[in-house]
């Protein structure tokens, strides 16, 4: 690389600095996050990384380095993610955060950013493992998110020295750190081939579990995740299955966890005695409407269906189904596909 190329690279790197030089010189104008350099001999160096054959000799971190040794779950997935993948990443990150589990991901566009955002939305902790210097933003659109991570007490981590520009090989290499910081890895969406498989391979080599959210068999972005299921990954099919896995991997006594048994009992009670939000008994017509709505949501969650197919399945007039579907669309619970079928949209809150 000649001198001109080096100058161009340095200019690009400086444009991606998370905090500019003026801010670094004036701590009065802007509260800067803690900078840490952790050698393997450091007490704060995450011991789980020492299991790696090529453990980083030094780690560079911005923010709360104490998080690096906290129980964590890695959540990764496709960059060119679908709405389904983004919703799943955010949904299960929120749920993990509510258990008090730190969410680890790579800060990339798509599922990674959705996972970090989900953890933040739940008031939880998150670690971003970067393929650039910990003080360099990549991609540029992640600037606001990375600053929010730091403001919320999270951590930006890299094995690359300060100011290092993003390099292709560094993103593959950082996957081993993501896997090592976590007790398990959840993959929400991945095609074939996919760099996400590197994180899965590192997770398995450490003797940890790989969790996978199944996807449509005809979706190119889910071919990888479905293949992992065939190979023995643990399926995450709903909130309860996710909670069960977390409860097995993590000690629930140490967390502000969600009681699966309690939530199931509450749900059963609600189904037996439907009531309004004010505790008043619903009218028979309202009960029937709620029942048919629940049935429709159950069916279109399993497979997209047309209005006619739903009407035939329940012995109803098409106009009745249209009323229910229209309300579900307005509430953001269902959406119409190009072929006229309707499918359920994953809830945005866990």
Characterization of the model:
The chain is 43% helix and 13% strand. By secondary structure, it is of the alpha/beta class. The protein folds into two domains: 252 residues, 3-Layer(aba) Sandwich (Rossmann fold), CATH 3.40.50; 72 residues, Arc Repressor Mutant, subunit A (Orthogonal Bundle). The strands form two sheets. It has a nine-stranded mixed β-sheet, sandwiched between helices. A two-stranded antiparallel ribbon has the order 10-11. β5, α5 and β6 form a beta-alpha-beta unit. α3 packs parallel to α4, α6 packs parallel to α7 and α12 packs across α13. The N terminus is likely disordered.
Task: Please tell me the total number of domains.
Answer: 2
Helix and strand composition category: alpha/beta
Secondary structure: number of strands:
11
Tally the helices: what do you get? Answer: 13
Strand order of the largest sheet: 1-2-6-5-4-3-7-8-9
Summarize the helix and strand pattern as letters: HHEEEHEHEHEHEHEHEHHHHHEE
Helical fraction equals: 40-55%
> How far is the first residue's CA from the last residue's CA?
49 Å
Any guess at the CATH architecture of the largest domain? Answer: 3-Layer(aba) Sandwich
